[in-house]
Design brief:
10-stranded mixed sheet; Pseudouridine synthase; 236 residues; 3 helices; globular; 12% helix; mainly beta; single chain; 12 strands; two-stranded antiparallel sheet
């Protein structure tokens, strides 16, 4: 079983580096290893921290201290609250957009601009129930999802010569599949994304979407803290 790596820990907070391929919690339909399960095994007292999730099938799924999520295929930084006081504080920080989230991603194509901002609502596709699509919307609308990106490197796949852009991404909101959907909507889906780059070759030998949650910055105990996860092997 691939397990999380502990990056930082106090009596109130646990910071993990989640490996790609590990789900955050059960979907209520299948049984497989998860971050939630790992937390309950190693920190059983956290069973009373946070709010459980009820699946569409009616199963109550424990979310011990879990205040935010990463996709199964996304690696990187996750925060786990160890007390209900810290849980409430972190949820408020995320809701008020006081958490600075930075991701790294390889995307298909050569992006000409050095930076940009994507503003679009994330809605479920009627054609593909498991997918989401971006719909243009005014930035002032509360349903608007906002993703900022900047160029780090223009490169190419050594085997095919296909152009690739390496981006730093800062989502200001936290919608389902937001980064993946937004980048696909401007014609630059994430490399090897099985949902939003369907039919594209999985360049750079990636076997999962090339998306990594690099860092989280926020105020903890009156101090500004930044937690960073090292690049996983497939990125290196």
């Amino acid at each position: 079983m691939t397990v999380p790596h502990i990056l930082f820990e106090t009596n109130e907070l646990l910071v993990l580096d989640k490996p790609a391929g590990l789900i955050v919690h059960s979907d209520g339909r299948t049984i497989e290893p998860s971050v939630a399960e790992w937390v309950l095994v190693h920190y059983p007292a956290l069973a009373d921290v946070g709010v459980p999730w009820t699946s569409p099938q009616g199963e109550v799924v424990p979310l011990p201290g879990i205040v935010h999520r990463l996709d199964r295929t996304t690696s990187g930084v996750m925060l786990i609250a160890k007390t209900n006081e810290m849980y409430a504080y972190l949820k408020k920080q995320f809701k008020e957009r006081r958490v600075d989230k930075t991701y790294l991603a390889y995307v298909y194509g050569r992006m000409e601009e050095e930076e940009g901002e994507i503003v679009a609502e994330i809605v479920r596709s009627s054609d593909h129930p498991k997918r989401w699509v971006a719909r243009p919307i005014d930035k002032s609308n509360k349903r608007a999802a906002i993703t900022k990106w900047s160029m780090l490197q223009r490169t190419e796949d050594l085997q095919t010569g296909a152009p690739i852009s390496f981006l730093e991404i800062k989502p200001e909101t936290g919608r389902t599949h937001q980064i993946r959907v937004h980048l696909a909507s401007i014609g630059h889906p994430i490399v090897a994304d099985h949902l939003y780059a369907d039919g594209c070759l999985p360049l750079l030998d990636f076997q999962r979407p090339a998306l990594h949650a690099d860092s989280l910055s926020l105020a903890i105990g009156g101090q500004s803290r930044t937690f960073r996860a090292e690049l996983p092997e497939d990125f290196r």
